[in-house]
Amino acid sequence: MEPRAGVSKQDIREQIWDYMEARNLADFPRPVHHRIPNFKGASRAAEHFPRLQAFKMARTIKVNPDAPQKNARFFVLNSKKTLLVPTPRLRTGLFNKITPPPGATKDILRKCATSQGVRNYSTPVGLDSRVLVDLVVVGSVAVSEKGWRIGKGEGYADLEYAMMVSMGAVSQGTPVVTIVHDCQVVDIPETLLEDHDLTVDYILTPTRVITTGCERPKPTGIVWSKISCEMMGKMPVLRSLRCREEQAGKDVTLRDTHQGLPRARAALSTVRSPRELPSLESGSWQGDDVPSSTVYIGNLPRDARVSELKRALSARGAAPSRLTWQGPQRGAFLHYRDPAEAWQAISRLQGFCLGANTVRVALARHQGASGLAGGRTGEPHPDP
């Protein structure tokens, strides 16, 4: 099966998903659309895996958690190698190490290789573990004999690899393997590839082992300009890596950072009173007539100093015109010249870390003087 001319990545995905469904080439779960397909013959394709020289030499192997790679995970465990599996959608970390019970039989090892086994027999691997990954297995929707790869469109495999690069777990020489049905091997125009796209070195199908000889460089780390604030909010491990790279002096500007000002102006054009301004309700400001140009930040380290915070804010281009310190509450109010500047600061401070803490950032909430008993109009108060 060959893709049509002038296609996009999504066109190729849809073509393969439709083909596999129409010809009943997939196993549960179905339909295969929007998934890494669990294809019939996946077990047979995985039998090539332990015969690869790269497998024989590897001690630590990362395998994606998708169903068609279940047998690949079993072969890693059965060969007494270290198996690492990414956490689902990277919500709780990057890796889990699968540790079978002592004296595990092959039947138990097969259970450990399932999604349920991954949950029951895994322990998290932290960023400070200094793990070195010798071989990487990823799922694919489509792949070419040249090593070009297309995933299901969510970017997790590319991001996982970039994160491994950032933490020093892999290098350009670390082999990457994918396991697919023969119909998933198609021509992919190189023009569809981007710098953050992961390529593969070996393709295993039920009938073939393809050594791609791919010379296209693999991702050299996280491309922060491709990462959204929403992704940062969902992935604590990504926030931690961003803090490390920021402290190392790297550019960690997020994809939507520069959209903060236009977004703020658009929001302001429809707001008629301070109470209508968007708010994350992390802090509150008393006084009806105070403009919404104040940002609240919380979860500061207990030993944080004002001078340290001011330096960090300046480094991110978010220095306020005035700062109100709320040390006992581990927070501070940042006062900007106008609401648009405040929203720009919020955008720039997404994923902001001070010390080991990820700082909470939000527009200060507006309340009238009667909203908080005992407060003086015009003084900031963090929410309880």
UniProtKB/TrEMBL annotation:
The keyword RNA-binding applies. One of its GO terms (molecular function) is RNA binding. PROSITE patterns: RRM (PS50102). Keywords: RNA-binding. Residues 293-366 form the RRM domain. One of its GO terms (cellular component) is cytoplasm. Pfam families: 5-FTHF_cyc-lig. InterPro entries: FTHF_cligase (IPR002698), FTHF_cligase-like_sf (IPR024185), NagB/RpiA_transferase-like (IPR037171), Nucleotide-bd_a/b_plait_sf (IPR012677), RBD_domain_sf (IPR035979), RRM_dom (IPR000504). This is Methenyltetrahydrofolate synthase domain-containing protein. It comes from Tursiops truncatus. The gene is MTHFSD.
